[in-house]
């Protein structure tokens, strides 16, 4: 009798320990720590810890923000401009603290999920422009030009297919990418392609690296570039604010966010 009672007591204690451990596991799995909520902490979450109602799961912003960082983004107050898009539910802190995911990361995630842009036909389309506009540039300079084309597809200021972006014309009827309107350039492209020259290979490499998201975007989000600065292509205007200006080789690249007001 006595021995049995003792055993029952042990089992109860054991059960209690197991329950506490399983209760706290949900918090620990989220990278948090169960503690009394009177202790200062970036974010408390309830329902993840055993014990009284005041024993809650403390998750630091650093840990909470990891979901955003894993998506290539950065947590910040939404009052700060974001050259991409804000996504909720990925950051710790107040509701106005959100994950800014750069445009180019969106593109890469689209590519990873659909692979739609990563085709030989598209390597040719973008390669032709890269060759015409930047064949004298370094690999990084050519990659930046290729990305500035790819980034336009996911930008609200430009058409949303690759062919429409490349073939877009200005109000005056000229190609956005000047080189496409120059017969001598088209001929040079034909010749370099036929000869499978190093210049051809470089242009195709830069284009496929961007279209397949194989190498990250050196501009982060650029949609526009110019060979000099200041230049209307890279200046802010009443519709768009130019951000993240970066010189790469002989070009200045900018990202564009909607002008406020
Ligand atoms: C270049 O090649 C394309 C396709 O092969 C052809 O249609 C076009 O006429 C050529 N253009 C020039 C200028 O050689
Ligand atoms: C302007 C635009 O097309 N934005 C899209 C970029 O890609 C993300 C991810 O697919 C979309 O959610 C945006 O709407």
From TrEMBL:
InterPro entries: Cell_wall_hydrolase_SleB, SleB_dom1. It comes from the Eukaryota. One of its GO terms (molecular function) is hydrolase activity. It holds the Pfam family Hydrolase_2. The keyword Signal applies. Keywords: Signal. The keyword Phosphoprotein does not apply. Coiled coil: none annotated. Residues 136-253 form the Cell wall hydrolase SleB domain. Residues 1-23 form the signal peptide. This is Cell wall hydrolase SleB domain-containing protein.
């Amino acid at each position: 009798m006595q021995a049995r009672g003792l055993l029952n007591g042990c089992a109860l204690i054991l059960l209690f320990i197991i329950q506490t451990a399983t209760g706290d596991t949900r918090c620990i799995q989220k990278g948090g720590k169960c503690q009394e909520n009177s202790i200062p902490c970036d974010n408390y979450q309830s329902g993840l810890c055993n014990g009284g109602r005041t024993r809650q799961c403390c998750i630091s912003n650093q840990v909470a923000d990891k979901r955003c960082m894993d998506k290539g983004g950065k947590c910040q107050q939404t009052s700060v401009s974001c050259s991409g898009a804000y996504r909720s539910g990925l950051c710790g802190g107040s509701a106005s603290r959100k994950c800014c995911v750069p445009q180019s990361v969106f593109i890469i995630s689209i590519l990873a999920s659909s692979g739609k842009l990563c085709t030989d036909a598209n390597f040719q389309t973008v390669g032709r422009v890269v060759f015409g506009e930047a064949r004298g540039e370094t690999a990084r300079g050519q990659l930046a030009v290729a990305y500035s084309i790819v980034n336009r597809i996911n930008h609200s200021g430009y058409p949303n297919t690759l062919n429409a972006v490349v073939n877009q014309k200005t109000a005056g009827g000229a190609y956005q990418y000047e080189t496409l309107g120059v017969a001598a350039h088209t001929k040079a492209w034909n010749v370099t392609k036929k000869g499978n020259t190093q210049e051809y290979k470089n242009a195709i490499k830069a284009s496929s690296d961007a279209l397949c998201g194989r190498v990250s975007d050196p501009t982060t989000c650029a949609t526009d570039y110019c060979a000099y600065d200041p230049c209307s292509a890279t200046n802010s205007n009443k519709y768009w604010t130019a951000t993240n200006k970066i010189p790469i080789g002989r070009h200045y690249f900018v990202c564009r966010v909607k002008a406020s007001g």
